Amino acid sequence: MDALQSRPASFEEYVYWAKATRRDESHQAPPGEKGPRTSDGGALPQQQQHDTGRSMRTAGWGAIFYLITADVFGPFSTPWAFAQMGYGPGIAIFTVFGVLSTYSGWIIWNAYLGLDSARYPLREYGDFFLRLFGRLPRRLVNICQSLQLILTVSIIILLMGQSLSQMSRGPGGGQGVCFVTCLVVFAAAGSILGQVRTLRRFSWLAFGAVGLNCVIMLLCVGVVVNSPPNFVSTMAQYGPDFGPGPIAKFAGFPPDGYASGGLGFVGTLNGLLQAVFAYGGCMLFVAFLAEMRQPRDFWKALVCAELFIYILYVAFGLFVYSFQGQFALNPAMQGLSPYRWQTVANALSIGAYLVVGTLFANVGLKLFYIDILQEFFHFPDLTSVRGRVYWAVLTPTYWALAFVICATVPMFSFVSGFIGAAFILSFTFTFPALIALGYTIKRDAMVEGEERFDPETRTYSYKDRGFKRFRRAFMKRPILNTWNAIYFLGALTTCVLGVYSSVVALIGAFSGKSAATSWGCVPPV
């Protein structure tokens, strides 16, 4: 019996228990009502033993809408993206990536419903790869996810540090507070706010962050109409070529010398990567689904959030680009020239980005705790007293590491472009395409009536195996599977090209174009 229980679960076993859990969820009492939870003939034995964190599933789809919006919603890079691509290509790119990111979210949701169960909870992105492809792919994906999260937290610290640095210089443009000190302030603030362990408690903070972002957008729209771009910051970040001069806008791709992201194809790719970064939220969708009362309702939050985000992205990006042209700064609120409005926008953005940074750090630290500390070093569950103590100690350590990274490479646009290419593009487009291929083919290979799973022996009666089974499953939905294969190859190609362009831009920035240096007091804006 011990050998039977210790045997790794098969894909078909995951599907069997997922069906049982979805039936169980459909009979749950509505929120606020107390009543017995029914299950299908005891199909979910020892539920508490298998998932001690199940009691933390309390979020509704409305709360998830705010979490998705706070996670994905970053409109302040869109004017800079349009400045690299022009009106037509910019609109096309944001539309295509908006549709594709929604499709990727649907893939994640559909596969989650088919593989998550009370017996085998799906807690993190890498669990998809464990259940579809094996342990090694899961380990590689979790490493990539951990790297992306810590890098994302680091650029959020960098963004907040830039805001504080601008505020400290005063209307006269003095030296202000040392830039590294500004970064330390927000690493410390994140360490305090990060003591919150459950995402449910973030929903109201996320609502506030979305509201603050909307206020900042309106403020930017009003200011850019009545004032010139912030030439001091554009020269500090992109070099003397972007000093005071006539504003130029382009219907198509801008000519050389008018794109601050680089020359020719490199500049265009860096603009495209900001669109990728803008929509990069699929990685956290699993964490959001894992804390929902009814995961079936996730699609409502996904569609509403993506539509809301797309409309505001395009409208805001086009408007600011129309008034600032090639001098649009990333992030947009730091490109405002009147000091008092710049200060108001920076102060509001600090509150919004502190929430978003804490959200990323929360998921990143949970991933590290569960996947490394619990699995290899047998750390206690986070719901235990000892688990809470470890969380309190590890949180400031995580933020300190993020601080070291951003102080070493203080180039916001190009670092965010690198993260977008190497990680966000992979988690939002490349990996979901792989998940769709693996899940669809394995699920379609199962034959109702001819094959069945036996929960007593944990065995499955296969009709066929090997290439014959794969071919039969692929041809069941050949158009969908071919599309997902093309989707994967296209995303992978864009990833490689994006990493190349962002590395070239970073080399150029460190060669003297940017005023910022590693661990220096001079700010990059």
TrEMBL record:
It comes from the Eukaryota. InterPro entries: AA_transpt_TM. Pfam families: Aa_trans. Keywords: Membrane, Transmembrane, Transmembrane helix. GO terms for molecular function: L-amino acid transmembrane transporter activity. The chain crosses the membrane at residues 63-83, 89-113, 140-161, 173-193, 205-225, 271-290, 302-323, 343-368, 389-412, 418-439, 485-510. Residues 73-437 form the Amino acid transporter transmembrane domain. Residues 22-54 are annotated as: Disordered. It is a multi-pass membrane protein. Belongs to the amino acid/polyamine transporter 2 family. This is Transmembrane amino acid transporter.
